[in-house]
Amino acid sequence: MKIKEYKFSSDNAVYNFFINVYNVCQFIIRFFKEVFLPPYEFKEVIKQCYDVGYRSLALVSLTGFITGIVFTKQSRPSLAEFGATSWLPGLISIAIIRALAPLITALISAGKVGSNIGAELGSMKVTEQIDAMEVSATNPFKFLVVSRIIATTTMMPILALYMGFIGLFGSYLNVLSNENTSMAAFFEHGFGSISFLDIFSSLIKSIVFGFTIGVAGCYQGYHAEKGTHGVGKAANAAVVISMFMVFIEEIIIVQIVNAIRAA
């Protein structure tokens, strides 16, 4: 019986997958090398922080507010069956701070920020603007990639923290309209249910998510194919890969935090 030999070719999906993983690792290593070397593009970093953070506030505010209201409305009937509606502030605070705030903020940013970065760098790549920067003795990787990854990594924890407070405020309005609970009592009970580990893990998640979104968007845009099709493909891939990696990282970090909590 003749055994079929499995050969790798340039069209093989497995081969291409490992090549892409290697290229991404090289991309990340280059980022950590460039981030500590001069020149430092402070103005570009601040500009990107403005684009990532301030321009996302409206969407994050609306989503966080609706999340707080909807999650509270959905949780009340289950607690009311046991006469435990007084636990709502603590339950909502734990859910929002531990999981919902960093995760939903990351998903929103992956769709908005990740696609913008992928499309912007992709259009610069296909129009040879990046090549022109290299010819003019400017480091395009430092100016375009490093600044954007720093911005997403820095602003994601701030946006997640902001969304957490907006979500709790939306939850408070719903509790106020049904149980007539005072704001002081609501937040005292809510924050009393949160530990330092919850806040710390939420910040770590946000930092990791922000770094992932920045790397995915910059990598896809920086290596976009020629033509307008390549720009659209880069933007789409940045969103899909960012969201997929966010869910994977969420699972891993939750397992680590639960192990620490149980220890």
Describe the protein's architecture and organization.
The structure is a single chain. By secondary structure, the chain is an all-alpha fold. The protein has one domain (41-262). 82% of the residues lie in helices and 0% in strands. It has helices at 13-34, 42-52, 57-80, 88-126, 129-135, 140-179, 183-192, 196-222, 228-262. Helix 4 packs parallel to helix 8 (196-222), helix 6 packs across helix 8 and helix 8 (196-222) runs antiparallel to helix 9. The longest helix has 40 residues, at 140-179. The chain is elongated. The model is unreliable at 1-10 (pLDDT under 50).
Structural class of the helix and strand makeup? mainly alpha
Beta-strand percentage range: under 5%
Low-confidence stretches: 1-10
Helix proportion? over 70%
Overall shape: it is elongated
Q: Give the helix tally.
A: 9
What's the N-to-C terminus distance?
A: 55 Å
- Please report the total strand number as a whole number: 0
Structurally, the number of domains stands at: 1
Arithmetic mean of pLDDT: 88
Sheet with most strands: none
